[in-house]
Amino acid sequence: MKVKEGIDRDKAKEIVLLVKNANLKAQASIQDTMIRVTGKKKDDLQSVIQLLRSSDIRLDLKYKNFRD
To answer: pTM of this prediction?
Structure first.
């Protein structure tokens, strides 16, 4: 079994496009091997998490919350 760390460029672009097309009040950007999603409210960020969980992206995603 091979273990990968981070998200490859093609999948990252697909995720950013998914977030942008959802018309949520959040912006997604690619930073090295991660995707950063920013928004003014916690609810906006939680909406993005729900969107990604319900999508058919075949990745095990982890979420870090810097806003407490």
So the answer is: 0.79
